[in-house]
Amino acid sequence: MTAKAGGDPGLPFLYLALPVMDEPEFLPGLLHCLSMQSYGRYRLFVCVNQPEAWWNDPGKIAACNNNMATMQLLREFPGIDISVIDRSSKGNGWTGKRHGVGYARKTLMDEINAVAAPGDIIVSLDADTVFLENFLLSVSENFYKHPGSAALSIPYYHKTPADPAACRAILRYEIYMRHYFLNLYRIGSPYAFTALGSAMALPVWAYRAIGGMTPKLSGEDFYFLQKLRKYGNVLLWNDEMVYPEARFSDRVFFGTGPAMIRGASGDWSSYPVYPLALFDEIRETYALLPGLYESPVDTKVTRFLSSVFREDDPFQPLRVNHHSQERFTRAFHEKFDGLRILQYLKSANENNPSGDEDNLFEFLNTFYAPSEVEKLEINENSFSFSDAPAGTLDRIRDFLFQKEMELRLNSVPV
Question: Which of these, 23, 28, 82, 170, is most buried using a 10 Å CB contact count?
């Protein structure tokens, strides 16, 4: 099958990497989106995957049969060039500890890497995500305009489900994610991006430069995008966005699905609205980098890193190996990376008495005009995440979304 024509032949060719596991409800919608794309220079790679042990588990036979039906659907679907990687039929499933979406994404990208040219683009997708007809065109044009970029973190907006519990859970989770992004951006962190498996793209040359994807049982998108950021620039703006489904899912250990499950039970401890002061502590350490290059500087962040790395001065090795402030600064950010930032915030927040609601309003009132905050129609004295109507949470989500999109647009390289 050949993808339909469409698009400037001078634009990069796209390879779409799609892991699928028991998703008959969502996959047809994604395939329909692809069939409607205005840009036809793409090829879809799909890894239908599951653990081999599912074939011997009566509770998983329905999922196994769904995967077999998915393989048939993909082979017969008209108008799209599809390559199917079978990691689901009997004898082909994952065995041992090597399984899950991280291995599926790596398998896909390795297969693509074997046939693609360096300037081609890998677009990471999920089966439960949809987009408009110019989405693929927008990604190809983006990399054409910015050929030196190592990756693209695509803007996203979760669809609100009809189920009230799922609706409240995804809105609360998005508030966490967007507040986190906005604060990392304002302090100048190189890791101010959101990593979603359904919202990433990268050139093949960058995939080769970083040695490919390191598979994880979950969270592979976070580690992968962080690895790419250490190599080069990550674009934050794209003219089109993706619209992932919001659903309860326990197929991975952390991410949107597990966060929604925990949140629906009232546990948001892993996804708090962090106080401004904690982000400011990171920014203060950033500001001290010129002096830190010369000698140790005592800050809460450097003390934390000393504990994590079990080194009295975690930056002495960097001073020895990097003989310019510019190279030292880059090495600093590679050591104090997105993972360490998150760990620092979690650790520092353990003894913080302020609640998520107070932290949210501190952020809103500090950085936005009163007239903007008033439009949210929230009583600051009585607002509670657990009791607020879904409509109120949606207004907060949309406000933060708009502020994030403004920053993403402003980040476009000149």
Answer: 170
Q: Which residues contact 296 (CB under 8 A, 6 or more apart)?
A: 302, 313, 315, 316
Name the amino acid, one letter, at 394: D
Which conformational region is residue 211 in: left (phi greater than 0), alpha (psi within -120 to 50 degrees), or beta?
A: left
CA distances 102 to 194, 234, 253, Å, are: 17, 21, 11
Identify whether the C-beta of residue 225 lies closer than 8 Å to the C-beta of residue 234.
yes
The H-assigned helical ranges of 60-200 are: 61-76, 101-115, 135-145, 164-186
Supply the CATH classification number for the domain 14-156+194-236: 3.90.550.10
Provide the whole-model pTM. Answer: 0.93
DSSP-based three-state secondary structure for 153: strand
One digit per residue, the tens of pLDDT, for the chain of length 414 reads: 334 456 577 899 999 999 999 999 999 999 999 999 999 999 999 999 999 999 999 999 999 999 999 999 999 999 999 999 999 999 999 998 777 888 999 999 999 999 999 999 999 999 999 999 999 999 999 999 999 999 999 999 999 988 888 899 999 999 999 999 999 999 999 999 999 999 999 999 999 999 999 887 667 899 999 999 999 999 999 999 999 987 655 555 556 667 767 767 777 878 999 999 999 999 999 999 999 999 999 999 999 999 999 999 999 999 999 989 999 999 999 999 999 999 999 999 998 888 999 999 999 999 999 999 999 999 999 999 999 999 999 999 999 999 999 999 999 987
For the chain, the maximum distance between any two Cα atoms, rounded to a whole number of angstroms, is 64
Take residue 174 and report the two structure tokens written for it.
């998005």
Long-range contacts, 70-73 (Cβ 8 Å, 24+):
70/20, 70/23, 70/24, 70/27, 73/27, 73/28, 73/31
Burial 284-309 (b: 16+ CB within 10 A, else e): ebbeeeeebbeeebebebbebbbeee
Residue 187 to residue 275: CA distance in whole angstroms: 13
The 10 Å CB-count burial string (b at 16+, else e) for 264-278 is beeebeebbbbbbeb
Asked if residues 67 and 22 have their Cβ atoms less than 8 Å apart, the reply is yes
Residue 331, beta-bridge partner list? none
Terminal CA-to-CA distance of the chain, rounded, Å? 39
Distance CA 87, CA 106 (A): 13
Domains of the chain by residue range: 14-156+194-236, 276-349
